[in-house]
Amino acid sequence: MRVLKNLFDSNRKWAEKIRKEDPDFFLNLSKQQSPEYLWVGCSDSRVPANEIIGKLPGEVFVHRNIANLVIHTDLNCLSVIQYAVEVLKVKHIIVCGHYGCGGVQAALENKALGLMDNWIRNIKDLYLSHQAEIDSLQNEKDKINLLCELNVVEQVANICHTAIVQNAWNSEQELSVHGWIYSIEDGILKDLNVCTTSLDEISRTHRLK
To answer: How far apart are CA 103 and CA 148, in angstroms?
Structure first.
């Protein structure tokens, strides 16, 4: 099938619904992009960034990848962060993981997955740093979910350690980095209480002069 007609039909219905609610919505949207939020989330199809926080198109700048990782050699992710911070001037960066993440689960297993093995090795390294705490849990689901939470905390730190974010703080730009996790089972977000708003809140080792 060369044309996915059902998706085009859905698109037209969606656009018509929006126009009925706000006739000028798309006209106004086309004139500017000024979101307050950058969302760094997982590619999982069950975690749609805008929808789960009740935001419309234009309100959230989004980057998604497997297991919501922020890796210091990933130019794609870093470019998104730089554009969001330096050009769009977002006020909040949200790292949002989710319980039962397949990428995190894969990191706890020893199956060969091909190219993806290189990506999730970052989570395997994180597991090794917290192995005693994770292995003390008896339930496999609990182990995966704890590592999901720890992974979010790690990615918040990775964002804060970038020159992009630290330059913003040094120039007194208002910017907060948050760590959240989402439950697919009930649709509820949880704040992991790792919000970081300034250089003073990160380790001296990672502060850039």
So the answer is: 9
